[in-house]
Specification:
Bound molecules: S-adenosylmethionine
CATH topology: Rossmann fold
Domain Methyltransferase type: 91-187
GO biological process, one term: methylation
Number of helices: 10
Strand content: 15-25%
Number of strands: 9
GO molecular function: methyltransferase activity
Number of domains: 1
Largest sheet: 9 strands, mixed
Shape: globular
Pfam families: Methyltransf_11 (PF08241)
Radius of gyration: 17 Å
Helix content: 25-40%
Keywords: Methyltransferase, Transferase
CATH architecture: 3-Layer(aba) Sandwich
Structural class: alpha/beta
CATH class: Alpha Beta
Order of helices and strands: HEEHHHEHHEHEEHEHHEE
Strand order of the largest sheet: 1-2-5-4-3-6-7-9-8
Length: 249
């Protein structure tokens, strides 16, 4: 896509960035040659094949098993938890091929902005390809643990299906909270260890060696409360937890 001009949404997101970015294949890249630490699962996410089959094949099958919810139900719940008004800016961290970012377009409306952030160039290239150029959507290549936005920049943040892949998930969670405006909402979908405490402890510890990290049922809610968020809620289904909260103000 060499020589492609910036869409209006890309120009608006560039104005929100706290660091310089280069337009690459239709998304803004703040990482350049810098690499985000990668697990084996994360390397699969960065392959050329997975972004092509992710949204239509991989995700519906695997996420149904993981959450026992279909994508439409998951989107409905997410939009309710994020409670986005027209004109607001929402950040979708670890957006993959943009499926979770595009699901927010109707809520932000033409005057709002949905920004997808991911560290994978192949995922972002697919996201740009799948997104109509005039939509209020733009993508940024960055590390979730080092978001290139100033404090209190966005009205809502989502992070779906990704925290368990990240090298430092709690650093990412703190970054998401940092960029939330007072009154801003966050919704996270990730893994959940269930059962009696000794079993949970063992499975959480064992998962440190596995490609996907398992979070204890209380781990994410505790981190959000410790960071000062309020209205912290958790919904556990199958092997997943959907956690939401609000920044006071
Ligand atoms: C399974 S996809 C999730 C895509 C979408 N959010 C969804 O729910 O379908 C996980 C994404 O997390 C991204 N990711 C993993 N670690 C990351 C990090 N440290 N910073 C940014 N993105 C990351 C991967 O590149 C991948 O695109």
């Amino acid at each position: 896509m060499a020589g492609v001009t910036e869409s209006a949404a890309v120009t608006r997101v560039r104005a929100l960035l706290a660091e310089p970015a280069t337009l690459v294949d239709g998304y803004l890249d703040v990482l350049g040659a810098e690499r985000v630490p990668q697990s084996t699962a994360q390397r699969v996410m960065g392959s050329t094949l997975l972004p092509k089959i992710y949204e239509r094949l991989w995700r519906p099958v695997l996420f149904f098993g993981f959450t026992m919810r279909n994508t439409a139900d998951e989107d409905r719940l997410k939009r309710r938890l994020l409670d986005i008004s027209a004109g607001e800016a929402v950040l979708d961290v670890a957006c993959g091929p943009g499926n979770t970012t595009r699901s927010l377009v109707g809520d932000v409306g033409a005057d709002g902005l949905a920004v997808g952030v991911d560290s994978s160039a192949t995922m972002l290239a697919q996201a740009v390809e799948e997104t109509p150029r005039d939509d209020p959507v733009a993508y940024v290549r960055a590390d979730g643990a080092d978001l290139p936005f100033a404090d209190a920049t966005v009205d809502a943040v989502s992070c779906y299906g990704a925290l368990y892949l990240m090298d430092d998930p709690f650093a990412s969670l703190h970054e998401m909270i940092r960029v939330l405006k007072p009154g801003g909402r966050i919704a996270v979908l990730t893994t959940c260890a269930r059962g009696p405490e000794p079993v949970r402890r063992l499975s959480v510890a064992a998962s440190q060696l596995a490609p996907l990290r398992l979070f204890d049922v209380h781990e994410i809610t505790m981190a959000l409360r410790a960071a000062g968020l309020v209205d912290v809620q958790r919904r556990v289904t199958a092997a997943s937890q959907t956690v939401s909260a609000r920044r006071p103000g």
